[in-house]
Task: inverse folding
């Protein structure tokens, strides 16, 4: 039997994991997922993901692919895998795709959401699901700051020191903050992201939203192209990989929050 390529949509609560990528002696999403897949396939499975999330970061829509000569119905790939996973990881769908599909390199756009719980007292319910900021945050100022990051820019000031990207130029097509009750949602969409980029953007936004910095600081930090001048890195707790878009030819299912009602 010839090998086929399987794509899958995965969601997870990253608060108890050391990130996506397999690491010796560490509890990671990839290692647990590959173990569960191996049980279903009865052979070792190696996965590739759309974007490697760091320790503590969540995913509403992570996309992976792997190659196998083993045939299983899509339902078996989904339910069989979930039966061997902790409840903090769930495979949402599975489908056979073209051998030209690549979870990472075929992606044309990714979206991250960053949740901020904005109340004077910390929340028990949102613990590890949103980052708490006790200071009143002004979303008008935060959205004014966001406008500086739209378009194609060098985001070196928002790049982690250990980031292995060949260059820091990224195209941001959406960057905005919305508020519902005590939750602020910072949404950013780009063709690709640098390590810690969203958390570093969020750190700058919270300083601006609190009134400690002027919205123009967002543009100044961008122009420095120097991480040491880029402000605080926000906690991973509120960060979610929420969407990955691919060319229509691959017919990758859309996440439920993108589908029309």
Result:
């Amino acid at each position: 039997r010839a090998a086929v390529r399987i794509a899958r949509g995965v969601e997870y609560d990253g608060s108890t994991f050391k990130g996506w990528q397999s690491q010796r002696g560490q509890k990671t999403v990839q290692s647990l997922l590959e173990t569960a897949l191996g049980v279903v396939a009865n052979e070792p499975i190696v996965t590739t993901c759309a974007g490697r999330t760091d320790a503590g970061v969540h995913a509403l829509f992570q996309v992976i692919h792997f190659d196998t000569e083993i045939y299983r119905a899509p339902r078996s790939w989904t339910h069989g895998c979930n039966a061997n996973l902790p409840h903090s990881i769930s495979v949402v769908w599975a489908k056979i795709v073209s051998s030209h599909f690549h979870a990472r390199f075929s992606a044309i756009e990714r979206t991250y959401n960053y949740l901020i719980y904005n109340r004077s007292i910390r929340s028990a319910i949102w613990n590890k699901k949103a980052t708490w900021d006790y200071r009143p945050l002004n979303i008008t100022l935060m959205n004014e700051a966001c406008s500086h990051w739209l378009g194609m820019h060098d985001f070196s000031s928002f790049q982690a020191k250990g980031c292995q990207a060949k260059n820091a130029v990224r195209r941001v097509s959406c960057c905005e903050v919305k508020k519902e009750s005590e939750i602020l949602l910072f949404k950013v969409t780009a063709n690709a992201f640098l390590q810690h980029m969203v958390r570093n953007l969020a750190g700058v936004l919270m300083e601006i939203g609190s009134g400690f910095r002027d919205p123009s600081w967002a543009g100044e930090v961008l122009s420095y192209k120097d991480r040491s001048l880029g402000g605080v890195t926000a906690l991973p707790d509120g960060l979610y990989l929420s969407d990955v878009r691919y060319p229509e030819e691959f017919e990758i299912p859309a996440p439920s929050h993108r589908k029309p009602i």
